[in-house]
Design brief:
Blueprint lengths: L2 H24 L4 H24 L1
Amino acid sequence: MTSRRTGAALAGAGTLLSLIGGALYVLPGPGLPFLATGVALLAVGLFVLVVTRRN
């Protein structure tokens, strides 16, 4: 798997987890861990995409 695909996969998973975490945070449920993990994965994925785009 190339670095660009890895970054895209991380960003996609982060977006999905952020949406799930946001929904669970509004509804009664343990949403904060999902939201925090999703935002972290999204940030790492976007960072990897930006770094690999330069090369």
